[in-house]
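To fix ideas, we reproduce below a protein record of this kind.
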Amino acid sequence: MDRTRFFVRVASIYALIGAFLGSHMAGGGGLQLSAIHAHILVVGWLSLFAFAIYYRVFNIPKESKLSKVHVWSSFFGVLGLTAGMWLYYTQPIEGMRAFNTVFFIVGGTVLLIAFVVFAIMAFVHGKHISEDAQ
């Protein structure tokens, strides 16, 4: 899998959703979804795009198990956090409050794991992270 392409494509979807949600709030005059909008843009668009740049700029081995864990935990963490946040704040289905809360918490926890794995990778694959030409 091309990690850079994957992250850029997924980030572009979050950018589109975030921009649409921002336009919707601006047009409707309500800011009830501003926390969701901000998280979609920050963790969905900016973080995933930054991860794409990381994999493009630095020669992190494709067979790295840490890299695989990072990519998939980032993907599912962002999805879980943002969808869970939307479910939690909007409560679109009656009687699902506990499920929505758990969805939100699990998504955020998986995303936290992704960031921990990223920090670990910065040290494990540190020899690949340099200003010098590789």
Remarks:
- The chain is about 80% helix and 0% strand.
